Amino acid sequence: MDDFLAARLQMAFSLGFHIVFACIGMVMPFFMSVAHFYWLRTKEAVYKDVTKAWSRGVAIFFATGAVSGTVLSFELGLLWPKFMEHAGPIFGMPFSLEGTAFFIEAIALGFYLYGWDKLNKWFHWVTGVIVGISGLLSGILVVAANSWMNSPSGFDFLDGNYINIDPIKAMFNDAWFSQALHMSIAAFVSTGFAVAGIHALMILRGSNIAFHRKAFKIAAVFAAVAACLQPLSGDISAKDVAVRQPAKLAAMEAHFHTERNAPLVIGGIPDTLNKKVDFAIKLPGLLSFMATGDFNKEVTGLDRIPKENQPPIAVTHYAFQIMVGMGMAMVAIAILYFLVLFKKKSWLETRWLLKLFVAATPLGFIALEAGWTVTEVGRQPWIIHGVLRTADAVTPMPGIAYSFYLFTVVYLSLAVIVSILLYRQIKYLRS
Amino acid sequence: MIYVVIVFLWTSILLYILLGGADFGAGIIELFTSKVNRPKTRKTMYNAIGPIWEANHMWLIIAIVILFVGFPKIYTTISIYLHIPLVCMLLGIIARGTAFVFRNYDAVKDDMQKVYTPIFIYSSLITPFFLGIIAASSVSGRIDLQSADFLSAYVYSWFNWFSISVGVFTVSICGFLATIFIIGQTEPGGDRQHFIRKAKRTIFVVMFSGALVFWAAYVDHVPLLYWIFGGLPGIIAIFSAIISLVIMFYMLNKDKPILLRLLAGFQVTMILFAATYIHFPAIVLLSNGENLSLLTHQGQARTISSLAYALLIGSIFILPALFYLIYIFQQKPNFKNNPD
Ligand code: HDD
Ligand code: HEM
Ligand code: HEM
Questions:
Q1: Is residue B340 part of a domain?
Q2: Above 90 in pLDDT, residue A203?
Q3: CB of A146 sitting under 6 A from ligand 1
Q4: Residue B119 resides in a domain
Q5: How far apart are CA A238 and CA A233, in angstroms?
Q6: Is residue A309 part of a domain?
């Protein structure tokens, strides 16, 4: 395998792996805190059991998230030294603040996991909430670093030199808000559906029903609220991408020709040779509306983008379709769930509703990975949009392919072990 | 402002060696404990490091972030030329962190433990070993920015006696820190005697591997003697480390665990000080005699000042919380209180 491709794939795998644990680490503390709150308030032992079961899970995920994150902070240099040499001092601000957020998170988690019966019970509860808040903050900060790669600012680029660096301006770049918002909601969507799905499965299996019902409800409510917010925030993102990265938007939509009243392309197979999309559903004007808020405005197509600056079209397009498809499916489930909660309480007992949630277990995480593929592959061939090409940033060391194989094996085995552990936690709960 | 950043960098490295080191040492000690005593050692160690191991490892991340934000050229040079030992260390970090949590949190305690435990133990050994190699290689003057062939650019940069001996030394320091630390976690009379004997042995191992470093430096033409004894501060640091080691030896049997920890911490601080003092601000020494320096290769002024503020503000939040965490869980070792 070519070293450059290997480096990109290794980066993608590492990030794709880390993000799963990072999301769980950001969101589970909130679920835990809610269950914990009910336990402190109602003194129903089942809430305490839920809290403790979840916190055991969080410890496993947190550790995996922490080590994979540590690897990432080295990998940036190991794989992309020429990028880090210039980008480090500019987009470093969020990373240095993130250090604080992680630290607080790790300390608060220490208090939380080991503090049962040792600390004042409300102080103990608060440490759990702090774990969640600082986790979310660190997620937002690291996304601010990523959004800088999409929308570089806070420096002047003159003759290959990066001058007049302003780290604060770099942090609050144009893409910062839309990406951080969308990502934070995505974390709730994906973790929420995954957790709700697992507990729904346990209810269907008929084990320890009281316990799993409580757990299911907490996760499902979070998931449903977040799922409904997600398309709204996705719309903000799309408008934002249309302005700062027209090439990415064009690739997402396989939008080959610049036109007014541009149609939204759903599904289909992009044919890059003949510059058309086969077998797609086209909704006239909707792309113009999505990108600009006006059905008649012009949307830049790939024809306006020089060939060497175009991202891979098929991957970006499919990934976008997958994300939006999953997102819409989850909105539908969410609306149904609200209907059931408020109008048809009796349906809560039905098996089909639970089965639906079981089926939806992976949807959020699939959408999440797809969304990142859109953002990252859609930025290609740039590592810093419009400034530095990915191919110019890669490490000179040969043999990255071997490191890619090695890390792939490590990540796959970790994924397997974590799944086994999770399975055993659940089995243990049943007995 | 640059000095604020440098102090934070040095302190993070020191704290990682002290706290992270004691943590790695826990695994190393387990390796050198007879099968009979292992469960007891493991339990004692677990109670001591469980709540704080996450936080301990943050120091490494802080150091890395400071490097890539403030001193990008240094970070990228190390990343390129020490790629291989860095990857080995990372694999160690992954294996160790996950094995530690898996073995303590697996709901069912069965044969899987036989898988986790060796992974935990050996990765505890490997990680500081490569950490030592990386640290030594950055100053051993073997990094050659001009070299064209793979071996001299990416392998001989770190594969030499000096680097390897520092790796061994780092491992022994970790073991030493862990045994001293654990003495305070045991009850006088009972296990304590066992760990005091261990501590004596690790002190000898540290001295022996320290001597090995000097030998390897001599073989590899690294002017280590000059670095350490070339200036008064270095000499003072080394002598006070030796004196405190002697004091420590006499105090081992007295019931003063906190004092022992302070002495051990003091010694390691002095060793790091002596090793870094003389070539400051150079941090990477290259084969052509040039070096990468913290002062000449720093980022632009705005970057450094915002980094310094971020670190200062961060420490206002972190330090009190961290001390409180350590304080709470150090009061009484509670042997029944596993986390569930
Ligand atoms: C649960 C996950 C999830 C769901 C249901 C959606 N997204 Fe998303 N999307 C993400 C998870 C995600 C993400 C993984 O979090 C990304 C990658 C980078 C980012 O900031 O968010 C993302 C990126 C992303 C981008 C690119 C942003 C950029 O490059 O700056 C756009 C335009 C959208 N999304 C739009 C949508 C729309 C219109 C959705 C309608 C349902 C949608 N997303 C659902
Ligand atoms: C955790 C969520 C993320 C995921 C799943 C993700 C995914 C990916 C993928 C798929 C690629 C490969 C793109 C290609 O080469 O075609 C990539 C590249 C990269 N990403 Fe991300 N990314 C994430 C977040 C981030 C963040 C927060 C940063 C940095 C601060 C970052 C920095 C990079 C870099 C430096 C590359 C390599 C250069 C490039 O291909 O452009 N990523 N990522
Ligand atoms: C969008 C992408 C990312 C998000 C949302 C994210 C979020 C998080 C979160 C919430 C944690 C806490 C661990 C847990 O609770 O499981 C974490 C850990 C970590 N992440 Fe990421 N991360 C992302 C990408 C990255 C990147 C690109 C880097 C490296 C440059 C990185 C570095 C780290 C480090 C060093 C840790 C360990 C901190 C600890 O010990 O607690 N992350 N990440």
A1: no
A2: no
A3: no
A4: yes
A5: 9
A6: no
* Chain segment A121-174, per-residue pLDDT in tens: 888 899 999 999 999 999 999 999 999 999 888 888 877 778 777 888 878 888
Residue A55 vs residues A29, A139, A281: alpha-carbon distances, Å:
8, 20, 45
> Which residue in A63, A81, A98 is closest to B79 by CB distance?
A81
Q: Does the pLDDT value for residue A192 go beyond 90?
A: yes
| Residue of B183 and A314 predicted with greater confidence | A314
Phi-psi region at A382: left, alpha or beta (left = phi > 0; alpha = psi -120 to 50): beta
Please indicate, yes or no, if residue A267 is contained in any of the structural domains. Answer: no
**CA angle centred on B318, ends B312 and B321, rounded to 5°:** 145
What's the number of domains chain A is made of? 1
- Inter-chain contact A96–B307, Cβ cutoff 8 Å? yes
Does residue B339 lie within any of the structural domains? Answer: no
Please work out, in degrees rounded to the nearest 5, the angle formed at the alpha carbon of residue A362 by the alpha carbons of A361 and A364.
100
For atom 12 of ligand 2, which residue has the closest CA?
A12
DSSP B180-193: HHHHTTS-TTTTHH
Q: Contact A92/B69, CB-based, under 8 Å?
A: yes
Which of B65, B109, B338 is the mutation pick for testing A, counting most A CBs within 10 A? Answer: B65
Residue A58, domain member (yes or no) = yes
Q: Per-residue pLDDT for B332 more than 60?
A: no
Nearest by Cα to A60 from B238, B277, B340, B92: B340
CB B300 within 8 A of CB A165: yes
Residue B289 DSSP class = S
> How far is residue B95's CA from residue A68's CA, in Å, rounded to a whole number?
10
Closest residue by Cα to residue A27 from A322, A324, A226, A232: A226
More confident residue, A152 or B251: A152
How many Cβ atoms are within 10 Å of B75's Cβ, its own excluded? 26
Higher pLDDT, A192 or A281: A192
pLDDT score for B333: 45
Is B336 part of a structural domain of the chain? Answer: no
Q: Which of A312-321, B31-40, B212-221 has the lowest mean pLDDT?
A: B31-40
What 3-state class would DSSP assign to B109?
Answer: coil
- For residue A32, being part of any structural domain is answered with yes
Out of A375, A377, A382, mutate this one to test ligand 1's pocket (max ligand atoms within 8 Å of CB): namely A375
Structure tokens at B98: 């996950």
CB within 8 Å: A81 and B76: yes
Ligand minimally distant from the alpha carbon of residue A176: 1
| Region A236-254 average pLDDT | 88
Q: Structural domain of residue A86, as residue ranges?
A: 3-241+328-429
**Alpha helices per DSSP H over A80-115:** 81-114
- Probe target for ligand 2 pocket from A78, A376, A395, A407, with the most ligand atoms within 8 Å of CB: A376
Is residue A226 packed enough to be buried (19+ CB in 10 Å), middle (13-18) or exposed (0-12)? buried
A72 alpha carbon – ligand 3 mean position (Å): 8
State pLDDT tens for residues A260-316.
888 888 888 888 777 788 787 888 888 888 888 888 888 888 888 888 888 898 899
The pLDDT value given to residue A119: 79
Helix axes B72-81, B83-105, angle to 10 degrees: 90
| B253 vs B250: CA distance, rounded Å | 7
- pLDDT (mean) for A334-344: 88
Parent domain of B86:
2-330
Domain count, chain B: 1
pLDDT at A100: 83
Q: Which atom of ligand 1 is nearest to the CA of A147?
A: 30
Nearest CA-CA distance, residue B137 and chain A, Å: 16
Name the H helices within A115-245: 121-150, 167-171, 176-205, 209-244
Instruction: Indicate whether B338 pLDDT > 50.
Output: no
Give residue A64 CA to ligand 3 midpoint distance, Å: 10
Question: Measured between alpha carbons, how far is B129 from A204 in angstroms, rounded to an integer?
Answer: 50
